[in-house]
Every structure is written in structure tokens, then in C-alpha cells.
Write a structure and sequence with these properties.
The chain is mainly α. Helices cover 59% and strands 0% of the residues. InterPro entries: Cro/C1-type_HTH, Lambda_DNA-bd_dom_sf, TransReg_Diox_bact_type.
Length: 180
């Protein structure tokens, strides 16, 4: 099977298993290093054997695994065990939000239209773009397909100024409001 014919989750599972082997890490050691449960790691890795995974990881899980493996999250989902890109500490949700917004605008799609075309509820893309939702990889596959893209493309690092601006908006919206 080629990389292009595998689902993102299956490719992720192969990359995870191969990188873990390269670093001589057991599932327990990766769990301790990443903060992701051993059970979740096992379930993600089962996707490589063709078993439907019980756990489809969310972006936050990818961030934890990528950091523990010192592998950029884009390489993790693209099957690049050797790490073609320099490790970036950019939060994957912020990357995805920026890239979805950019590609969506280039294609002339509204958030609502993209949500519908990708089989998601009406405000789904909006919630991702405002960093209010931590999507599963399988959900991003349908959005990427609609955008004629890949999940790895959606995880491309953003320019630092755009990343900082998006992150600042998230931090500002997370800040408690003063009732006075």
C-alpha cells in the first residue's frame, strides 16, 4: 500500500510505531513521555494492522505525541518518520484553523458551506477557525477532501505573525471576563 492510499489514521499509526521503534521506546515509555495513555497509543497503532481504531485521535493528542517524539506534527501524519521538517512547537489546532481559513477563502467557500459539503454540522468549520473545537483526525479528513487537500496540508506551519495573531485571539477569548 502506498502512503497516498492509506487513511490519515492508518498512516499516523505506521509512523508512530516506526518512530517509536527508531527511538527504542516502548508504548509505556512513550506514554510517560507524552502524557497520552498507553491504551490510546495501542489503539492508534492498531490502525496500521487494518483494525478499525477505537480511538481516533484529536489534534491535541497529535501535539503531545509529536512533541514526545520530537517530530513535527505534519511529518507525523504524513508518514515521514525521518522528520523532513524542523520540529515546530506551533499548536496544531492553530495551524489547522489558519490553513482551513486560507484554503476555504481561496476556493470561495463560506464556513457554513464547507461544513455542509464535508458532512459536518453547520457551525463546525467556524468553531475550528475560532479555535473553539479540538477536532478528530477523521473529521479533518472529510474537510481536507472537500478542500482538495490533505490533513498534512492542513497541518502546515503558519507564518509566525499569523500564528501569533491567531493564538492571541484564542488567549484573549479564554481570559476570564471582569463582571464590573
Amino acid at each position: 500500500m502506498t502512503k497516498e492510499s492509506l487513511s490519515t489514521v492508518a498512516l499516523l499509526s505506521q509512523t508512530l510505531r516506526a518512530k517509536r521503534a527508531e527511538l527504542s521506546l516502548s508504548q509505556d515509555a512513550l506514554s510517560a513521555r507524552s502524557g497520552v495513555s498507553r491504551r490510546a497509543i495501542i489503539r492508534i497503532e492498531l490502525a496500521a494492522t487494518g483494525e478499525p481504531p477505537d480511538t481516533i485521535p484529536r489534534l491535541s493528542t497529535l501535539d503531545m505525541l509529536a512533541q514526545a517524539l520530537q517530530l513535527d506534527v505534519q511529518d507525523l501524519v504524513a508518514g515521514n518518520v525521518s522528520g523532513e521538517r524542523a520540529f515546530s512547537g506551533q499548536i496544531s489546532l492553530v495551524r489547522v484553523a489558519g490553513n482551513i481559513a486560507r484554503i476555504r477563502r481561496e476556493l470561495g467557500l463560506s464556513q457554513e458551506r464547507l461544513s455542509g459539503l464535508s458532512g459536518r454540522f453547520r457551525e463546525y468549520v467556524h468553531r475550528i477557525e475560532v479555535l473553539g473545537f479540538n477536532p478528530r483526525i477523521s473529521d479533518l479528513e472529510s474537510i481536507a477532501t472537500t478542500l482538495k487537500s490533505s490533513v498534512a496540508d492542513l497541518l502546515a506551519p503558519l507564518a509566525e505573525d499569523e500564528y501569533s495573531e491567531r493564538l492571541a485571539k484564542r488567549i484573549a477569548s479564554d481570559a476570564p471576563t471582569n463582571p464590573e
